[in-house]
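Hello,

I think I submitted the SN-glycerol-3-phosphate job twice by accident. Can you confirm which output corresponds to this input? Input:
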Amino acid sequence: MTDSSEKFVAAIDQGTTSSRCIVFNQDGAIVAVDQREHRQIFPKPGWVEHDATEIWSKVQAVVAGAVAKAGLRADQLSALGITNQRETTVLWDRSTGKPVHNAVVWQDTRTSALCADLGGTDGQDRFRERTGLPLASYFSGPKAAWLLDNVPGLRVRAERGDIAFGTIDSWLIWNLTGGTDGGVHVTDVTNAGRTMLMNLDTLQWDVSILAAMNVPEAVLPEIRSSAEVYGTAVGQLAGVPVASALGDQQAAVFGQACYDTGTAKNTYGTGSFLLLNTGNRPVPSKHGLLTTVGYKIGGEAPVYCLEGSIAVTGALVQWFRDQLGIIRTADEIEPLAASVDDNGGAYVVPAFSGLYAPYWRSDARGVVTGLTRYVTKAHLARAVLEATSWQTREVVDAMYQDSGVRITTLKVDGGMTKNHLLMQHQADVLDVPVIRPRVAETTCLGAAYAAGLATGVWHDLDELKAHWQRDAEWTPRMGAQERDREYRNWRKAVERSFGWHEEGAEGA
Ligand SMILES: Nc1ncnc2c1ncn2[C@@H]1O[C@H](COP(=O)(O)OP(=O)(O)O)[C@@H](O)[C@H]1O
Ligand SMILES: O=P(O)(O)OC[C@H](O)CO
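Support: Only one job matched these inputs. Its output is below.
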């Protein structure tokens, strides 16, 4: 039985591989969780799609599951927050509510040639000043343009106003608030900022970029803050205010209580995303980072971040497990790696979708280098884990070069942080302590916090900060000489990955 004065907030985390719903109490503690995976669709090398209809039905199922496990009725929820895999692009018909094509996922590289064309003589930097982003297949605007050009008849329907564009937050909010029967078509600044269509200063759609990418304004959602009531849910959550939306990495910043300028977190999932809070002004990057909105609470000033996006970290462990079959579960990598003292001279650069930060090289492909007869699967297991910590080190160095901020501790979260060997190596190669909080579900927690702030469950950031508690800490142990030698080797390995893929050639 629950105390009737107690307040609860639910958050939906719609991620790349699964959807989760978590119910939190007023202390920010987890009351119930439900989670379901959805299909990964790979129609061609380099293409990754999701079925947005399947995602919506999985989301409905996990909401029902979490609310039931919590022993609550929907009307006992004070608010619902949304957080989501970013950039993944859905176009749907406003009158039928059906997607016109599978969603094109953030990892999908089909727009590489389109991005190269759009860059023209300015190259990757054409829209960087206005959007904070390099032209890369990662972002949503070119994905929408590709769909408009490749789904027969779609452009005409879009220009007539019959089609809606959205990242997953928009798709979910529209469905939650009624869909074809009055659903609201909105997005928040953190998600809009990943389309490459939003101006970072005005936080509005940039009409000249829309024209350059040939994306009609009629398809776009309204851009709102990350924490405000967008609408009221219908259906199973009837009456619950839908009160926050944040991209998952920004939600983790919020859930990790990185509210002060200079604080940073790294989330280790399929990929890894390190965000540094840079305060109320966007800091441009000259070293391969993204400038992105961290969050915006209602009418308050936006908070910006520098972001180092790494496409493949946990996904490399999955590859080691599923494609090579060397381990049966992800957890087995740690004892295997711990059975040897070092990587035996081997390095793995997981440039499966090219390399993201700080290189943004779509011509890179994965390499395993340094092989000799001495190298065993245990050395490779180490090299697989070390690929994550070295990629993070490169991003941390770029953060310092761009912002002058030297990270003194790194807050971490995500599925890979249960791997002690990896977290120790991370502390070693950064030479700073790495700290994991007690509530590891920082993404959902951030969305819940934002929704709770918008509805008066919590009152200010200080209240939220007081919830944060340390669970584990790793302190650096590696000597400087070893660190520097290994870093040099890692960078040599990265150079070996460049220039492999030629656009238009066979294969991915
Ligand atoms: N013990 C482990 N050691 C290293 N990596 C792990 C371990 N357990 C899970 N992972 C990796 O963590 C990732 C899952 O983390 P999660 O935060 O759930 O990711 P996402 O939200 O991106 O789906 C997977 O890519 C998996 O390979
Ligand atoms: O769903 P995740 O955790 O893999 O995160 C994906 C990122 O938002 C992509 O930008």
